[in-house]
Every structure is written in structure tokens, then in C-alpha cells.
Amino acid sequence: MSQLFEQLKPHLDKAYAYRTALVLLSWDNSTLAPKKALANTSKAVAILSGERYKALINKEVKDLLWALSTEKEQAELTAYEKAIVKNVKKNFEDLELIPPQEYQEYQLLLAKSKSAWEYAKTNNDFAAFAPVLKDIIAYTKKFASYKQKEGQPLYDVQLEDFAEGFTTEILDGFFGKLRTELVPLVQKIREKKGFISRDCLHRSYDIDTQKKMARFLSEYVGFDMDRGVIAESMHPFTTNLHNHDVRLTSFYRENGLEYALFCVIHETGHALYEQDIDDEITLTPIGGGAGMSMHESQSRLYENNFGRSKAFWKNLYSKIQAFFPEQLGDVSLDEFYGAINYSEPGLIRTAADELTYPFHIMIRYEMEKMIFENDVDVMELPKIWNQKYEEYLGVVPPTDSEGILQDMHWSGGMIGYFPSYALGSAIAAQLYHYMEKEMPLESYLEEGNLKPIQEYLKEHIHRFGESKNTQELLLETTGEAFNPDYYVEYLIKKYSALYEL
Amino acid sequence: MSQLFEQLKPHLDKAYAYRTALVLLSWDNSTLAPKKALANTSKAVAILSGERYKALINKEVKDLLWALSTEKEQAELTAYEKAIVKNVKKNFEDLELIPPQEYQEYQLLLAKSKSAWEYAKTNNDFAAFAPVLKDIIAYTKKFASYKQKEGQPLYDVQLEDFAEGFTTEILDGFFGKLRTELVPLVQKIREKKGFISRDCLHRSYDIDTQKKMARFLSEYVGFDMDRGVIAESMHPFTTNLHNHDVRLTSFYRENGLEYALFCVIHETGHALYEQDIDDEITLTPIGGGAGMSMHESQSRLYENNFGRSKAFWKNLYSKIQAFFPEQLGDVSLDEFYGAINYSEPGLIRTAADELTYPFHIMIRYEMEKMIFENDVDVMELPKIWNQKYEEYLGVVPPTDSEGILQDMHWSGGMIGYFPSYALGSAIAAQLYHYMEKEMPLESYLEEGNLKPIQEYLKEHIHRFGESKNTQELLLETTGEAFNPDYYVEYLIKKYSALYEL
């Protein structure tokens, strides 16, 4: 047992305590808090955020971290302890590179940028958001430049924050392949418009019954309600206080059953990851998942590879019919399977089907890369956005609210985050491919025997939390690095069959 | 503006931030958190509690508080600022009198005492709780002795913590009067058993409909849902993050409509108090109510003096019937009014009617006083308890779980807390008496025009928070100190009429 690590522990515990408070405050704000509460409550949030920052960013912690990084001390640490030291030290180093004055200015900017974006989106007024976006881009690029290594593309620095181990080189290859292989497929499906219908999902579905169905479905997939909560929010998300308290939200539309169905399966995919984190690290800085792309791979594996497969619904569908006998009684399994896989290029990322989804991400990727590589005039961005939508998806947003303003990420400084969504889908396909060799995957799905599937994921991925990164986990689990071929093959095979191409 | 007070502010803000986090964690634990979450989450709670303590109990704050207490500095402070300094200084002084070692031992004792009580209650095993209770009594008495002033009864010190300004002398007079005047009344009502029935409240009431009714009722009484939340918990309570985020819970029984009705009105009484606290002090240490007894007076004023009056239901009753046409359609207003005021001595405090309720408190008061004045053998307490129940209420608990173990207060060190409940009822009656002179109170209740009533309470009591104590507020509002006569008169008049005595 390392004495120095023992000295670090109280600091880690404090950071965990602040994180717990802040996660709960944020959860509460999204799910329950009364509408006039925010102004007062956010004063507490600001103070607690400051304390959380100070808990790990201080001289005492710094001395301990550097002392713990010597070879002699490292030899005394467990793998988890090493990962914790590495993780906290990296945060420290990243923050140290940024002058405190600039960091504070940036925090102030972020404090008002979300409402600027909300205003712009509500009023379809990109010009109102443009100056804020311009500043966010400037700060983000400047901060990335502080961390940039010799010869490293600037956007690569930014990607590191969200998808460690993924570079523009890898992503160019990935999106290039998608463009080449999938654009023709999307085009062929457009030509068969009407071949599949999803009208059955748009009948009137009682919301209270949908909520009961959502809970049933989440538990069916594996969510442990003794260690979890399901609530409702405008934008579905999953969060956790620790592995014994994982919370997901869903979202319901009376005339769109697909929202409840797939929001819940998607979020449960995230939630299983969080519930499976090792007890030993759940209260530490490495108690989360291994980065955004791996997290997203789990939600998409459940939502799409499992949740939109025919095997998954073979025996389950009758149970969903039982919730809605009037609405689904006359809909066959095949019709239902078609409906949940209906594909049509659209404007909105979060409403996109499995096939056209990655194009929404590709467009953002290309724009973010361009922003980082060139001096782009912010006011030109909507035009570029619309051109790309026309080129890849054949649709043009009638308003910026339905175009470049649709997502809040950039307003929160999350540039470089989007690629994780598409990477997640590709990683899911890669994992699925290997899991099929390890177990009778399709039979398990048909039988509703999802436990061994989750056990496999827990054993190979979930339990490690952030102690390993996405590329390491992929290599150890599948025996190869990230490989998008499985994803492209999967989509072509699935959609060619569905649309009889 | 006092410069010293400006220096104190960041410390106050920090304490407020920790309080916010802890209140939310506690609320969440009672209403939503998954059942296996507590062990991990309580580690964060322990750390945040420690930080909260340190935020105000430190050398820097001490120096500021003492410096702010000089006559010269006091002259520069507003009334609120003075109250804040006084409040924080009093906490400081109280804590300073207790040796840190003993304080910590006591905290450790409290950390395990609740589960010891729960075990004992579940298993009807008082002996299992007795050693813990013995230690709690010993610590409580020791801590009180540190604060005890020359000639002051020890139990008076303890009472100060919960009902500032109320002494054993006042309480002896109060309970003495209740004993003399009300025991005969209770006896007479026993003899008319069957004269009133409450069977209509024990029909089958759908829980979801009860929840809708509860929300309607709370808003009818005045709860502002834009600044509030209603949830469900085992034991109803009200809490707040600040005046724009006040949260109450209710509790529902399918075969007992009175629970939903009066839990909700009671808790809304507390909640209106919290929503009415002045904006200027809501985020400060004096942002709560003026002590337990005044808080309880507001909940009981709404629950009993208003909520169990005929005027209140005159026009409202038909709206409740509309929620439950099958169950209440054949029940007249008079029958309903009788049912909600049905009186019968029972064993359980929280299920007691308005008339027999104070006897439950009187018994606890007598026992607590005895514990503080004498060296009582803890193992004798159940026997004493049962004797008193037989003497005052004519009932004997068949088990200790339904007797001395029914409430958790003592297990949390809350000795001296119970009297506030009865004081609250008496204060409510005193306020009601004076309010009748100030406004057409009964007409307002009949019309459902509760706004001017709340405005009056806000103006005279609520807005001040803890900046004035209960006795001060009573004197300023009613022109006299605490006077239990109104309460006794009210009960005698009401119950004599109800039971035609």
C-alpha cells in the first residue's frame, strides 16, 4: 500500500462528494425542480463547482501527483491506482496550461452562451448566436493550441478530450468509407419511398401506459431498479451518483411510440455500463465510462444492434402488443420490425434512423474540422451546413433552427464531441461481430436471455470504468484496433434485406 | 454597509451551498433514490456535512463574528444582518462549549442509532434499543449541562434548541391546563362512541386519483407550483432549497382518505411559510422558519383550524366529491365534516385526532422532563409509558413498537422536540383568535379566498424567517405572549358542538 496514495485519498473523496452533489443538482434541475428555482439554486451550484475544482487542483494534490509518478512509487500502485493518478494528473496538466484569467473568462462566456443559443434557436436568429459562437470557437482553438504537440493537427487535440486515441486520420478514413459506401444505399432507399411504413407507430399511445412499458422494457434489457431510477425529461439522458445509483430519463410522444421504445433501450445501454462499473472504483475519478465513444457504443449496441433486430422482438413483441392491444393488435411482427427500421433522410439528428444517422455526424465532423483548420467566417456556417445537407442527404433545412442551431453542444463548448456518436455505432458493430463468435447471441436475444450478454460486456468493458481507454478495450476484447468495416457491412446487409435491394 | 459583514458573506454563501446539497440529497433519499444507493451516497453526505460544519466553524469566521458584535459594528448592520450574526454566533458558542472529542463520539453514536431503533421497532425489542437510548440521553444531558445557566432547569436548556423562549414553567402550565380541562372532555366523547362515524373515509380510494386531488388541494390552499414540488414518501415532510424551491411530500392509503387530505393541507401550511420567506434572507442562515413551534403552528392552523372547519369545506367539498363520485356521492357535507373530526383515543401519535393529539405530546413531555430531572433506568421507560397512556387516554399499547418505540425522534437525539407539536396547535388557536378580528376569516374560508389569509401571515410572521423568535412574533402579531387559553376554548367549543355535549 502506497503511503502517498493514502494521502491522496481524502482529496479524491472530497472531489467525489462535490461531484455527487453537482450530479444530483443537475439531475434534479432536468427532471423535477420547479421552474422558478434555477436562479437561486444556481448560486449554490456555482459555489460547489468552485469547491470541486479546488478539491483536486491545489498545491498539495499537485505535489502528491508528481511524487506518485516516479518509477519507485508507481511500482507500489495497483492498476486502478495508477489509472487514478494518471487521470487526475492529466486534468491538472491540461488546466495548468491555460492561464487562469482566460479560463475564468471562458467560464463566464459559457455561463451565458446556452441562453444565447436557446434564444437563437427559438427565434430562428443565427445572427444572435454568431458572436457567442465566434468567441467559443476562439477560446476552444486557443486552449487546444496550448496543449498541441509538435506536428499534431489542432482538431486532433480537441478530439482527445472526447475520444482518446481517435485522430483526424482515423476519422477521415472512417467518414470517407461511410460516404463512399453508404451514400448510394441511402439514394436507393429514397427511390423505394413507401416500400416500408411506420404509420403504426404514430397512432395514439397513452402516455401513462408508455411509461409502464418503458419501465418493463428497461428491466427486460437488464436495468436493475434496486440500483436505478427512471424519470422523464425533455432530452433523454443517463447519469449516476455511483454504480448503485444510476438514473436514466426518457421522453414520450403520444403519436410516436418509437421515442419511448428506443430512448429507453438506448439510455438503458448507457445505464448498464454505469451499473457494471467495479465497486472498487465507482467512487473515484475513474468511476465513469471509458470516454464518450465507448459509452455511446453501449447505448447503440442495445438500441440498434439488439433493439432493432428481428431476433430481439421475436418473443418480446407480443408483450409490447399487450400494453397496446388496440394500437398494435393488427400489426404483425414483420410490419413492426419494418416500422422501427424505416429509413428516410431528414433534418434532425436526434430523430434520424440508424442508416442516415451517421451522415448528420459526418456533416458536423467536416464543419468542426474546417473550423479548426481554417479561419472560417462564423456567419458563413449556416450556408455551408445547408449545402452539406443537400449534398449528403438531399434535404435542405428551411430554417436555421432546424439546421445548424438544432443541437446545444457547441453552445456548451463541446466541439469535437459529435464524432463519438458515430464512432459509438461503429464500435457497437465491431463488438457485435466478435460477440457472435463467443456466444449464441441471436438465440439469447430471441429468448430474452440478456444476462450473459451483459456479463460479457461487464467482464470485457464495463467494469474497468475509465482505467482503460476505448482503443485499449477494443484491442483486448476484439483482438484488433478500431475497424469501421463491420459497421458498413452491417448497415448494407441489414438495409439491403429490409428494402429488398 | 459594514465591511466586516461583507467579509462574512462568502462564508455564509458557502454554508448555504453545502446546505442546498445536503437538503437535496436528503430529499432525494426519502423520495426517489434507489434502495441500494444509500451506503455509497452516505459517504458523500458525511464529507459534505463535515465541509458544511467547517464553513462556519473556523477561526476566520469566529474573529469576524466577535468583531461584528461590538456596539459600533452593530450600529452599522441592518436588522437582518444583526439576526444573521446573532444566529451564527449562537451556533458557534454552543458548539464551542462541547469538547470536540465528545462531539465526534456523539456523531458516531447518532450514525448507528437510527438503525438500532428501526431494528427494535420492527422486532418489538426495546431491550435492543435501550443501551443506545441510554447513551443518547447521557450525551444530551451532558451537552445541555455545558450550556446550562445558573439556576436554569436542565430540560429548559434542551427546550431552547427547539422552542426558544419556552421553559418548563410555561409548559407545565400549558400541559396542566390541558390535563384539567380536556381529560373530562375526552372521557365524555368516549362515552358517546358511535355518535359520529368515519367509515365513509375508509372506502376504496384510487391512489392516482388521490394524488391528483392532493395537488388540487395544495394549490387551492395556496401552494405555488412554479416554486414547489409535491412528491410521495413514507413519512410526509416539507423541506426547501430556498423560497423558490419548496418541496412537500404526502402519503396515501387506499382505505384512508383522511391521510391524503390532511397530510397535504398540513404540509402545505409548512410550505407556505417557506415560500413566503423574504427574498433578502432566503439564502442565509436565517432563511428558515422561527423555530419548530411556530412552524408547526402554521401547518396546524391550515390542517385543523382551517382544514377541519365547516366553513372551509362549504364550497370545497363538492370539488372533492367530484374526484370520488362513487365513494362520496352519497355522503353529505355534515357527515363528511363529522368524519374528518371523528375523535377516539388511540395509541399512535401521527394517527391521532385533533382533540386527543396533545395528550400524546403531554406524555412525551412528562417523560422527557423526568429523564432530564432524574436518573431514570432506561429499561423502566416502557412501563412508565404504558401507565401514562392508560391514565390519560385509557388505552394500553400491546407492544412497545406501538408504544414507546413508535417515533424515531429520540434515536436522532431530538429530545425536547415533541413539545413544539402541541405548542404549534396552541399558537395556531391564538393566531386564529386574533385573525378573526382582523378580517372576515370565516367568509374567506367559505369562499376559498385564501390569499388574504396567507398575505396576513406572510406580513406578520412568514417573511421574517428566523430573524425573530416565536415569542417575539406572537407578541407583535397578537399583542400578547403565548396564551394557551384560546386553544383549550377552541377545542372545548368545537368538540362539544360536534358531539352535542
Structure description:
Two copies of one chain form a homodimer. Chain A is built from 22 helices and three strands. The first copy, chain A, folds into two domains: about 5-135; about 170-500, Neurolysin, domain 3 (Orthogonal Bundle). Chain A is mainly alpha-helical and about 500 residues long. The first copy, chain A, has helices at about 5-30, 40-55, 60-70, 70-75, 80-95, 100-125, 125-145, 155-160, 170-190, 205-220, 255-275, 290-305, 310-325, 325-330, 335-340, 355-375, 380-395, 420-440, 440-445, 450-460, 470-480, 485-500, and strands spanning about 230, 240, 245-250. Chain A has a three-stranded mixed beta sheet, with helices on both faces. In chain A, a hairpin with a 2-residue loop joins strand 2 (about 240) and strand 3. At the A-B interface, helix 1 and helix 2 of A face helix 1 and helix 2 of B.
Fold-level CATH name of the largest domain in chain A: Neurolysin, domain 3
Instruction: Assess the beta-strand content of chain A as a share of residues.
Output: under 5%
Largest sheet of chain A: 3 strands, mixed
* Helix run count of chain A: 22
Strand order of the largest sheet of chain A: 1-3-2
Largest interface, C-beta within 8 A: A-B, 37 and 37 residues
The percent range for helix content of chain A is 55-70%
